[in-house]
Amino acid sequence: MLVMATLSTSAAQQEGLYDPAPPSNSAFVRVAGAPAATLGTRSVVADKGAVSTYVVIPQGDVSVRAGAASQKFRVEAGKFYTVVLHGGKLSLLPDAPADNRAKALLVVYNLSSLPSVDLKTADGKTTVIQGVKPGESGNRAVNGITVDLATFAGPRSLNVMKAVRLERGKAYAIVVTDGGTTLTASTTTR
């Protein structure tokens, strides 16, 4: 009995250490291109040019409002999405799953007026993600590494990100806007 009481007390103490698991009918939605938005009844905030954290949303229809734009989207349980505000319009982009813990996931969102952007090593020699059109995203799983990355429009370098430490099991969002490029690392593996 003493052992059971000790285990019960230990479990109760650890219960507060972790967030509860989301309900099984949950989708995960974040916002890019808007400093503030509303997803259903949840408010979401992102640093300028960055993506917000994911918000747990019940599957089904979700109303999204960002600035003067509003729209309803349908989300599925177990899936990850990014709502993008681009050109005053909202769109819903499905996100690639970060299901390979041995790789880092890079995702590029083109929220600029450029016809296409690429993610390359800073020297331009190695293309990581190619041809991301305006209002769209591209992704690639890569090995964990520390590397200088840059976004490019054709041969022109837009922004260099020095010594980016890509950790296995994490996802990284790179948002390209007309004002520059922002890198956001997720704090947890999806």
UniProtKB/TrEMBL annotation:
GO terms for biological process: alginic acid biosynthetic process. This is Alginate biosynthesis protein AlgF. GO terms for cellular component: periplasmic space. Belongs to the AlgF family. The keyword Signal applies. Pathway: Glycan biosynthesis; alginate biosynthesis. The lineage of its organism: Bacteria, Thermotogati, Deinococcota, Deinococci, Deinococcales. It comes from the Bacteria. The keyword Signal applies. It is found in: Periplasm. Keywords: Alginate biosynthesis, Periplasm, Signal. It comes from Deinococcus aerius. InterPro entries: AlgF.
